[in-house]
Design a protein that fits this description.
Order of helices and strands of chain B: HHHHHHHHHHHHHHHEEH
Largest sheet of chain B: 2 strands, antiparallel
CATH architecture of chain B: Up-down Bundle
Radius of gyration of chain B: 22 Å
Largest interface: A-B, 59 and 61 residues
CATH class of chain B: Mainly Alpha
CATH class of chain A: Alpha Beta
Helix content of chain B: 55-70%
Number of helices of chain A: 6
Number of domains of chain B: 1
Oligomer: heterodimer
CATH superfamily of chain B: Formate dehydrogenase/DMSO reductase domain
CATH topology of chain A: Alpha-Beta Plaits
Structural class of chain B: mainly alpha
CATH topology of chain B: Formate dehydrogenase/DMSO reductase fold
Shape of chain B: globular
Number of strands of chain B: 2
Largest sheet of chain A: 3 strands, mixed
Helix content of chain A: 10-25%
Shape of chain A: globular
Number of helices of chain B: 16
Structural class of chain A: alpha+beta
Radius of gyration of chain A: 18 Å
Distance between the termini of chain B: 51 Å
Number of strands of chain A: 13
CATH architecture of chain A: 2-Layer Sandwich
Chain lengths: 244, 419
């Protein structure tokens, strides 16, 4: 991809998820869980079963269970919506956090300072996407020891990841700061078997993400709330049913 | 330390019959306080996993009880400020009792936040790194201001009652300051919820007015209950005129309260916007949380209104007390409904919903529609703090010698407007 902007400028990081490609396999969710050593019961990233192109608040679900299509045979429809932190430009969590523990980096990544969070959970009440997870007690992990990053990570001196979670603080998707800070892709992007996820700099007109957003018609979740998410979704192109 | 009080208070029981009743009362409060403290220690060791809260319903009993106590603190303002600002002399005998209960309510509400924090050891971050866009910071500020104000107001009222007219001017100035301060306290507490775009159930401009009126309702009802208790056990005389004012204040604020809630319901029902409607359906008859609706509208609404307004019922002995108690219960149900339904109603209407943040073998780690019931830890801590409130009011009532409040110094010098 041709870089047209100044190499020194801070990138504006954006993820685009092509819902035409997503097969609902949960590989990204499990990969996320592994690389971030998420305790049992934690899912920074999850795959919702939806009907094509429905807003998340539009209708009651077809079922409480995943992978259940909507409608009646043979007129069934189903799609998947992978949801993790939307890294909003005007993030409600950043606005409500009383101690500035949740903050937005210059590249648009929203992070939580594990050492400053007081555990009031106001951010969880304020987030429209329900992507934040609280450490209710001593974390329990899958057997086999620490996996993934396995080390503390600091951004601007603030502890934004630690493999063994402290009790009483909030956490969520970090866009894999450990990886993006060294020029790699977030692990969900890397691991998606069908290439449904794309990550890049939207300020770079030549990047795939900016093309998907500007020409591919990618949309945000709950745009009406004005949170300005930096995760976009390419809508499902519905096929016209064949006459028979 | 709370248990010490219990052991000290108990021997007094045998000594003199007159002390035994108050001694038993203190002992019971100390026991509840000690239980609450023990539960909190347990919670500190286990983490908030000891509560019924999880990632879908991530605020629970501490927060709705906090909001409830903030509302109850309105009583002080109503008694002290209306007596001065609107010249309602009949309420003046209750000024000091009201302000005393206001100070106690605000203190308890502030403390109620602490067990809700995941990291109470970092509470000073609120002052070291305040984020001024957060309504929580505004609330902490106004709670502190209101608490200090209540203590100062109580001191001035006390001086006025004992030392007389020299303090009259200061008392009046405070009454005028108290009014906007209290309105701000309830509004800011309402904005913690009302400003959140994420949850349709909360995001209404009506939230602040609703909090103000339900605070006036529950606050007046609480002072009524305290005054009736003091009348029964504490030697306070409650004049018929005062009762009439209390009855009127409770009835009017209850009607306005139900009107506001009704306005919200009609807006949601007529508009039929799915996100709003799915939340309201949880509450309306037939929904899983409809008990809050019945408590709010019938047990805490129609019944107390009938007791206060229907002439035949109004004359029944104890009608005022029962009505006040029911009104307080109704407002508490409203607070539960407000906080919990905001979370129970799924943000994401698609399976599997949100991760819970804890793992129980054999059960799903996800939840679509939220569930919540408090654990014994939450009940014990809240009960301990309620006992603290009762202890502050009892000690204050006795120390400040409020029993004579109905007479001499609080007397009729400003009675002009009423008669």
């Amino acid at each position: 991809m041709a870089k047209k902007k100044e190499p020194t400028a801070t990138p504006h990081r954006v993820m685009v998820i092509d819902t035409n490609r997503c097969v609902g396999c949960w590989t990204c969710a499990v990969a996320c869980k592994e690389v971030n050593n998420e305790p049992l019961g934690f899912w920074w990233n999850r795959i919702l079963t939806t009907a094509p192109n429905e807003s998340t608040a539009a209708a009651a679900p077809a079922s409480e269970n995943i992978d259940v299509p909507r409608g009646e045979y043979p007129n069934l429809e189903m799609a998947y919506l992978p949801v993790a932190c939307q890294h909003c430009t005007d993030a409600p969590c950043v606005k409500v956090c009383p101690v500035q523990a949740t903050f937005r980096r210059d590249d648009g990544t929203i992070l939580v300072d594990y050492e400053r969070c007081i555990g009031c959970r106001y951010c969880m009440a304020a987030c429209p996407y329900g992507v934040r997870i609280f450490n209710w007690g001593d974390a329990s992990y899958a057997p086999g020891g620490t996996v993934g990053y396995g080390a503390d990570y600091r951004s601007d001196g603030r502890l934004v990841f630690t493999p063994e979670r402290p009790k009483g603080v909030v956490e969520k998707c970090t866009f894999c700061v450990e990886r993006i800070d060294v020029g790699q892709q977030p692990f969900c992007v890397e691991s998606c078997p069908v290439g449904a996820r794309v990550f890049g700099d939207i300020d770079d007109p030549g990047s795939e993400v900016s093309q998907l957003v500007n020409e591919g018609g990618a949309v945000q979740l709950h745009p009406e709330l004005g949170t300005g998410p930096n995760v976009y979704y390419v809508p499902v192109r519905k096929r016209v049913p064949r006459e028979s | 330390m709370a248990t010490d009080t219990a052991t000290v208070a108990l021997p007094a029981r045998g000594a003199r019959p007159s002390i035994s009743r108050i001694g038993l009362w203190y002992a019971a409060l100390a026991l509840l306080g000690a239980l609450g403290l023990a539960a909190w220690v347990y919670e500190l060791r286990t983490g908030l996993a000891a509560t019924g809260m999880r990632d879908v319903v991530s605020w629970g009993m501490y927060i709705f009880t906090f909001a409830f106590f903030i509302g109850l603190s309105a009583g002080g303002l109503i008694m002290a400020s209306s007596a001065e600002v609107f010249g309602i002399a009949a309420l003046r005998p209750l000024s000091r009792l009201g302000v005393l209960s206001a100070a106690a309510c605000v203190a308890v509400a502030g403390l109620m936040i602490i067990p809700d924090l995941g990291r109470p050891d970092r509470i000073l971050n609120l002052f070291v790194h305040p984020n001024w866009t957060s309504p929580l910071i505004w609330d902490i500020l106004i709670i502190s201001v209101y608490f200090v104000f209540s203590v100062v107001d109580l001191a001035v009222l006390q001086r006025h009652a004992t030392a007389g007219a020299r303090w009259h001017r200061r008392m009046q100035v405070l009454a005028y300051v108290g009014l906007p301060t209290a309105v701000l306290l309830h509004s800011i507490t309402a904005w913690i919820f009302g400003l959140q775009i994420a949850r349709a159930w909360w995001n209404t401009a009506l939230m602040a007015p609703l909090f103000v009126v339900s605070a006036i309702l529950s606050g007046t009802a609480l002072v009524t209950l305290l005054a009736l208790a003091a009348h029964r056990w504490g030697g306070l005389t409650l004049a018929d005129d005062t009762r009439r004012w209390l009855r009127g204040l409770i009835a009017v604020s209850l009607i306005v309260d139900l009107f506001f809630v009704g306005c919200d319901y009609i807006t949601v029902l007529w508009g039929n916007v799915p996100a709003d409607r799915s939340a309201l359906d949880l509450v309306l008859p037939g929904g899983p949380w409809s008990w809050t609706f019945w408590v709010e509208w019938v047990a805490g609404g129609v019944v107390p209104l009938a007791l206060l307004l229907v002439p035949r019922l109004r004359r029944l002995p104890g009608s005022l007390g029962v009505a006040a108690a029911l009104a307080v219960v109704g407002v508490f149900a409203f607070r539960i409904e407000l906080v919990v339904i905001g979370f129970v109603n799924p943000l994401t209407q698609y399976p599997p919903g949100n991760a819970l943040g804890t793992y129980d073998r054999g059960t799903s780690s996800f939840e679509l529609t939220g569930r919540y019931s408090p654990t014994w830890v939450e009940f014990a801590i809240v009960a301990g703090l309620v006992a603290l409130f009762a202890a502050i009011v009892t000690v204050g009532y006795r120390r400040l010698r409020l029993r004579g409040a109905g007479t001499a110094a609080d007397g009729p010098d400003r009675a002009g407007v009423r008669s």
